[in-house]
Amino acid sequence: MSNILKVVLTNAVRNTEIQKAGEILGISRKQVIKLRKGESANINSDKLLGFILDYMAHPRLIIKEHFID
């Protein structure tokens, strides 16, 4: 199960603008960049779960919001 969450988190972080992901997760840009590289970062578990669940429930909305003007 943890591998599935890791893949979802990796995709969510990659598909979300660095600044926006940092705001949602409550971490710095440097930590978001580390996550994108597959490294670890200290993240509040409630914010992390909310970020993952939002991505899983509304991936098109997240992508549209950040990549389509």
What structural class results from the helix and strand content?
Answer: mainly alpha
Give the oligomer, counting copies of the same chain as homo and different chains as hetero. Answer: single chain
Q: Rg, please?
A: 11 Å
Instruction: Give the ordered list of helices and strands.
Output: HHHHH
Total count of helical runs of at least 4 residues = 5
- E-strand count: 0
Shape: globular
Overall mean pLDDT: 81
Assess the beta-strand content as a share of residues: under 5%
Number of domains: 1
Q: Low-confidence parts, pLDDT < 50 over ≥5 residues? A: none
End-to-end separation: 35 Å
Helix content: over 70%
Largest beta-sheet details: none
Characterize the structure shown:
- The chain contains 5 helices and no strands.
- It has helices at 2-14, 18-25, 29-36, 45-57, 59-67.
- The model has no long low-confidence stretch (mean pLDDT 81).
